């Protein structure tokens, strides 16, 4: 019988694509965890979505994030071997978001998530991706991750997820999402 555990991490260290082992709270491992969480929330949103287009886009993005994790996990000298996130992938996100935005109505104020299960999950994805983006920025500035497309991709992805949330809400037959109360400035 195969086991799905190794016991190698019981000492608080983990392996990575580099020399030695890293503490599980190391910024590189924390960054990997944040991108992994983002991918997991995308999987949840994909499962909850009722729109086939959204499901297809989310699966494509999950595959992109999986490849991104390999680059992040690699020693800076080895990372280029794993590099797949580039300006072309960023442009793909922009094209997809622009095309979808043409078919949905932009809200007049901040959107409150939860009108649909799929829409709420997409908003969780957006927030999770923003956290992953912050970790990648920090890792880039402190540990030599040299691919600026990683940050650009995650930045566009958070915008894309908002657009997908609007599409999911519209696909459920709602005319517009619940919106936050307007702020009154004195």
Written overview of the protein:
There is one protein chain. The chain has 186 residues and is mainly α. The chain has a single domain, classed as Hypothetical Protein Ta1238, Chain: A (Up-down Bundle), CATH 1.20.1200. The protein is 59% helix and 3% strand. It contains 5 helices and 2 strands. It has helices at 27-48, 52-73, 87-101, 117-143, 148-171; strands at 13-15, 21-23. The chain has a two-stranded antiparallel sheet with strand order 1-2. Strand 1 (13-15) and strand 2 (21-23) form a beta hairpin. Helix 1 packs antiparallel against helix 4 (117-143), helix 3 (87-101) runs parallel beside helix 5 and helix 4 packs antiparallel against helix 5. The longest helix has 27 residues, at 117-143. The radius of gyration is 18 Å and the shape is elongated. The N and C termini lie far apart (68 Å). The relative contact order is 0.17.
Essential attributes:
186 residues; Hypothetical Protein Ta1238, Chain: A; mainly alpha; single chain; two-stranded antiparallel ribbon; elongated
Q: What oligomerization state is this entry in?
A: single chain
| Tertiary shape | elongated
CATH level-1 class: Mainly Alpha
Q: What is the name of the CATH architecture?
A: Up-down Bundle
Q: Which fold name corresponds to the CATH topology?
A: Hypothetical Protein Ta1238, Chain: A
* Contiguous uncertain segments of 5+ residues: none
CATH superfamily: Cobalamin adenosyltransferase-like
Number of distinct helices: 5
Q: Provide the domain count.
A: 1
Main-sheet strand order equals 1-2
Q: How many β-strands, per DSSP?
A: 2
Biggest sheet character: 2 strands, antiparallel
